[in-house]
Amino acid sequence: MNTIAETIQELAQRMHGFPDWEDRYAYIIAMGKDLAPYPEEFRSEQFKVKGCQSQVWLHPALIDGAIVFDADSDAVIVKGLAAMLMKVYSGRTPAEINAHKDDVAVALDLQQHLSPNRANGLASMMKQIRLYALAYSMIKQ
Amino acid sequence: MIESLRSQFPLLRRHVHGGRQLVYLDNAATTQKPQVVIDAIRAFYETSNANAHRGGHALGAEATGLYEGARATVAAFLNAQPESIVFTRGATESINLLAVSIERTYGHLLKGRTIVISEMEHHANIVPWQVLCQRTGAALRVIRVHDDGTLDYDHARELIDSSCAVVSVMHMSNVLGTVNNISELCSWARSVGAISIVDGSQFVVHSDVDVQAVGCDAYVFSGHKLYAPFGIGVLYGRYEFLSALEPYQTGGAMIDTVRFDGTTYAEPPGRFEAGTPNIEGAVGLGTAITWIRSQSRVLIHHHERIMAEKIISAVSCEKQARILAPEHAVNGIVSMVFDGLHAQDVGVLLDEQGVAVRTGHHCAMPLMNRFGVSSTLRVSVAAYTTDDDVDRFASAFAKACRMLG
């Protein structure tokens, strides 16, 4: 498995490789469609990510020391962005996530491709992923 | 006519997202400013800057003259006396001022009384009244909205009874474009002795208002939606109504005499303008209103309706899109939801193509709940909206729907 930094690098190359915005968005939307179905039992207020205009759910589970995330959104572009974050962060140990401080939106140069609303939504999801990672690392200690 | 009007708005020449011509259709959030308004603010600082109502020097007198001149312009615009015009930060502050001053003046009488608002109100005309109710023991009553986006006037008639102390309703909906029959609501309020307040933030942008004909105790709006700068707004108050009210903020300028054993307050409007006012904002607003009144408002109104109709027909081409209250949308505010699509997704793809619209709850969550939606995509026109804007919107909209479909 690639490291977090390598996976981000891979995604960034992919995003920059598209000749225009339509292809970039088609890719983001397609990633969302490929996302594993979100478990219905976790579609609750408890797992909602605050600070997004659309509804976003994020559920963590600690399996063999790694956090496996499930994510979903009722907006397809946000769902695609969530799928990107899943690709980068799901299946990582809390320590790996805690150690990687870089802003994924900056690394992917998404700021340039996303309007501020979207960037906020992404930042909210990112914050939640980091909070879960921090919480799991506290529990283990 | 519209092309020459449009050419007075420098911002509309902008490009976004690497070279796309901006199509600005978020006018219900704020309008762009004509060159005369920008010039007036600049000229104020370059030639006349001084504090108003202070100091016996030439510039002070000039600044005071400009500020009071702006007040007279606003007064004439609403068919009111200048003494009835209070400058505020915006409609939100105007309503907060009213809620706080009403509490300070009549709070002890409000227990068991009712405050009547409507289901379509902006949060700015909901939350201040909720707080007033919590503090006084008054109860909030809400006029229902019909499926077609019209107020339920039978329900309003029922709610505005002898227990009612305040009726506060918007003139035009910022989500649906509905224009409410506020003179009827105000006359019902008057008949039961209730205070009547109208939030005219959206309406004044499109049509003239005569507060005498409306018959309200207070009428409020923001400058920035009316081609004027941010941070300036208006509270019109019937003079007798204002005279009886306790002040909102206190400090300099709002006093008559100050002694440690007691302070007396100035008469309105000064009583409600504590501290140094936003002089540049008032000058900008006065200039914007003078500019609007130099245009043919009837022709602009007609033009805006045609633009709205074209937007409605472009939206209607897409099967997934459904316009809320289409018969009111022709007033210039077109709100829509999508089958199987989030409004935000469509908004993102419009933005990518240089088309600025708004998605979200538009500070009207109760109205969203009423229509069973969490957000809408809102397209709103202004005087400077052209056929070209609408054509660009239509093709961008079709493309967005195709990409998401």
What does this structure look like?
The complex is a heterodimer of chains A (141) and B (405). With 141 residues, chain A is mostly helical. Chain A has one domain (4-140): Sufe protein. Chain: A (Alpha-Beta Complex), CATH 3.90.1010.10. Chain A is built from 7 helices and 2 strands; from the N terminus they run H-H-E-E-H-H-H-H-H. Chain A has a two-stranded antiparallel sheet with strand order 1-2. The longest helix of chain A is centred in the C-terminal third of the chain and has 25 residues, at 116-140. The radius of gyration of chain A is 14 Å and the shape is globular. The mean pLDDT of chain A is 86. Chain B is α/β, with parallel strands linked by helices and 405 residues long. Chain B folds into 2 domains: 2-27 and 296-404, Alpha-Beta Complex (Aspartate Aminotransferase, domain 1), CATH 3.90.1150; 49-293, Aspartate Aminotransferase, domain 2, CATH 3.40.640. Chain B has helices at 2-6, 35-48, 58-78, 91-106, 127-136, 153-159, 182-191, 203-206, 211-214, 239-244, 279-294, 297-316, 326-329, 343-352, 365-370, 387-404, and strands spanning 15-16, 20-21, 23-24, 85-88, 114-118, 139-143, 164-170, 195-199, 218-222, 233-237, 255-259, 262-265, 321-323, 333-338, 355-356, 358-360, 376-380. In chain B, strands 4-10-9-8-7-5-6 form a 7-stranded mixed sheet, sandwiched between helices. In chain B, helix 2 runs antiparallel to helix 11 (279-294) and helix 12 packs parallel to helix 16 (387-404). Chain B is globular, with a radius of gyration of 22 Å. Chain B starts with a helix and ends with a helix. The model of chain B has no long low-confidence stretch (mean pLDDT 96). Chains A and B meet through helix 2 and helix 3 of A and helix 14 of B.
